[in-house]
Write a structure and sequence with these properties.
The complex is a heterodimer of chains A (about 110) and B (about 110). Chain A is built from no helices and eleven strands. Chain A is an all-beta fold and about 110 residues long. In chain A, the strands form two sheets. In chain A, strands 2, 4, 5, 9, 10 and 11 form a six-stranded mixed beta sheet that branches. Chain A has a five-stranded antiparallel beta sheet with strand order 1-3-8-7-6, with no helix packed on it. In chain A, strand 6 and strand 7 form a beta hairpin. In chain B, strands 2, 4, 5, 6, 9, 10 and 11 form a seven-stranded mixed beta sheet that branches. A four-stranded antiparallel beta sheet of chain B has the order 1-3-8-7, with no helix packed on it. Chain B is mostly beta strands and about 110 residues long. The chains are: A mainly beta (about 110), B mainly beta (about 110).
């Protein structure tokens, strides 16, 4: 069973601050996705990374994939209240298509 | 392009009953996966269907089953409901690309009383 560790579990910050969320595994990801989920709704895909060392940017969000493809991070610059939500990393391993999810990071950005 | 749709959005059942949930994938997507989300266990994989065949199954009891139709729509069924089956059931569709991008529907909130 592949395990995926996500940290921190909770994050409460003031508007304008920066933050980083981490996602790690002891196994190599074949691909990794970051999602954001609102209460009672399904996760919304933010980004997919597949190449070691890859960096992708989505407005104020920066996603990095580790060189060894065992870890990833999500960095938010100048967080806004609209960024509040549950951030989930999800990875697949080998040829399996099932996603293994991290436990999530509940982010609250206070105005 | 329409997203993944799931019906119904909310269900209330009692223990021992059975339930069927429906999922319509994004047009052109032929792979459908189902996940269960609970506060205690997070998101867990139930099963994946492609071309009407179950390709992979998670660690859930046989009370959980599913199927896929020729138009790629999928249903999942839970028989003999237990209180612990209360959860948000999520369907995800994918076009089977190598990046394994999966797009989720809004989910069905099942409450078992």
């Amino acid at each position: 069973t592949q395990l995926l560790e996500q940290s921190p579990q909770f994050l409460s910050i003031q508007e304008g601050e920066n933050l980083t969320v981490y996602c790690n595994s002891s196994s190599v990801f074949s691909s990794l996705q970051w999602y954001r989920q609102e209460p009672g709704e399904g996760p919304v895909l933010l980004v997919t990374v597949v190449t070691g060392g890859e960096v992708k940017k989505l407005k104020r969000l920066t996603f990095q994939f580790g060189d060894a493809r065992k870890d990833s991070s999500l960095h938010i610059t100048a967080a806004q209240p609209g960024d509040t939500g549950l951030y989930l990393c999800a990875g697949s391993f080998g040829s399996a298509r099932q996603l293994t999810f991290g436990s999530g990071t509940q982010l609250t950005v206070l105005p | 392009k329409a997203g993944v749709t799931q019906t119904p959005r909310y269900l209330i059942k009692t223990r021992g009953q059975q339930v069927t949930l429906s999922c319509s994938p994004i047009s052109g997507h032929r792979s459908v996966s189902w996940y269960q989300q609970t506060p205690g266990q997070g998101l867990q994989f139930l099963f994946e269907y492609f071309s009407e065949t179950q390709r992979n199954k998670g660690n859930f009891p046989g009370r959980f089953s599913g199927r896929q139709f020729s138009n790629s729509r999928s249903e999942m069924n839970v028989s003999t409901l237990e209180l612990g089956d209360s959860a948000l059931y999520l369907c995800a569709s994918s076009w089977m690309g190598t990046d394994n991008e999966q797009f989720f529907g809004p989910g069905t909130r099942l409450t078992v009383l």
